[in-house]
Design brief:
THOC7/Mft1; rod-shaped; 4 helices; THO complex subunit; coiled coil; nucleus; disordered C terminus; mainly alpha
Length: about 210
C-alpha cells in the first residue's frame, strides 16, 4: 500500500480530523489486551470501562458525522430548492418584463394618439362653431340669390338693348337705303334738267 493510499484511507476513516482513527486503534488495542490478559476483576472492569468510553466516543463521533451528513443533505436540498425557486422567479420576472415592454409600447401608441387627438381638437376649436358657420352660409346663399337676380336683370336689360340696337341698325339701314334712293332720284332729276338747256343753247347758237 502506497503512502497516498494510506492517507486516503485515513481521510475516509477520520474525515473530520477529530481523532476517530486514533480512537479506533486504541479501542482495538484495548479489546485485544482485555481478551488476552489475565487481570484481576477490578482491572478487567477498569479496562471494560475504558473500552466502553472509547466506544461511546466513537459512537458519538459517528452520530455526529451522520447528523452533519443529514444536515448537509438537507442544506443541499434547500439550496437546490432555492436555486429552482430563483430560476422560476427569473422566468416570472422575464415574463413580467416582456409584459411591461408590451405595455410600454402600447402606452407610447396611446400617448401618440392622444397628442394627435389634442392637436385635432385644438384645430377644431380654432374653427368657427356650427351655428356661426350656418349663419355665414345663409348669408352667402342670400348673396348668391341676389347676385343671380341681379344677373337675370342685367341679362334682361342686355337682351332689350340688343333688340333695340338691332331695331336701330335695321332703321339705319332702311334710312340709308332711303337716302341713297333719294340721292339717285335727285341725280336723275338734275340730269334731266341739264339736257333741255343744252338743246336751247344749240338752237340759239344756230
Amino acid at each position: 500500500m502506497t503512502d497516498e493510499d494510506v492517507i486516503r484511507r485515513r481521510l475516509l476513516i477520520d474525515g473530520d480530523g477529530t481523532g476517530d482513527d486514533r480512537r479506533l486503534n486504541v479501542l482495538q488495542k484495548l479489546i485485544i489486551k482485555w481478551c488476552t490478559s489475565e487481570e484481576s476483576p477490578e482491572e478487567n472492569q477498569l479496562s471494560l470501562d475504558r473500552m466502553l468510553a472509547q466506544l461511546a466516543c466513537c459512537e458519538h463521533t459517528f452520530r455526529k458525522s451522520q447528523n452533519v451528513a443529514q444536515m448537509n443533505a438537507i442544506e443541499l436540498q434547500n439550496y437546490q430548492n432555492l436555486s429552482q425557486k430563483i430560476k422560476n422567479d427569473i422566468q416570472e420576472e422575464k415574463k413580467i418584463i416582456e409584459k411591461t415592454k408590451a405595455a410600454l409600447v402600447e402606452a407610447k401608441v396611446v400617448r401618440k394618439n392622444k397628442m394627435e387627438c389634442d392637436l385635432l381638437g385644438n384645430a377644431i376649436n380654432e374653427e368657427p362653431d356650427r351655428k356661426e358657420t350656418g349663419k355665414k352660409l345663409e348669408q352667402l346663399k342670400n348673396e348668391l340669390k341676389n347676385l343671380k337676380d341681379c344677373k337675370a336683370m342685367i341679362e334682361k336689360k342686355i337682351l332689350k338693348r340688343r333688340q333695340q340696337f338691332h331695331a336701330l341698325t335695321v332703321t339705319i339701314q332702311q334710312l340709308r337705303g332711303t337716302i341713297e334712293e333719294d340721292d339717285d332720284n335727285d341725280l336723275n332729276m338734275e340730269t334731266n334738267d341739264d339736257e333741255p338747256m343744252d338743246e336751247d343753247n344749240a338752237i340759239s347758237i344756230n
